[in-house]
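Mods, move this if it's the wrong board.
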Amino acid sequence: MKRFFLYLLTAIASLLAGAIVGAIAGIALTTFFHTSQFEGYAGYLVFTTFMPLGALAGLCAGPILLARRSKRRDSSDAAKQ
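Not the wrong board. Structure tokens:
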């Protein structure tokens, strides 16, 4: 049960971190490519495209990285014994 909550906490934290990184990347890209600011188009683009993509990437990557890290740690503990 402890491991389940650890994965759940990791998924939530990485979802939020991915959304933040996605929003920052979206703002940077819309600024770099001079996206039109007419009626908030650049803002809509960031918060309806880049932010959800970043959140999805974070949601997928966080638990996978945790699993790899815990697997590596478990195998190193088994090697010591």
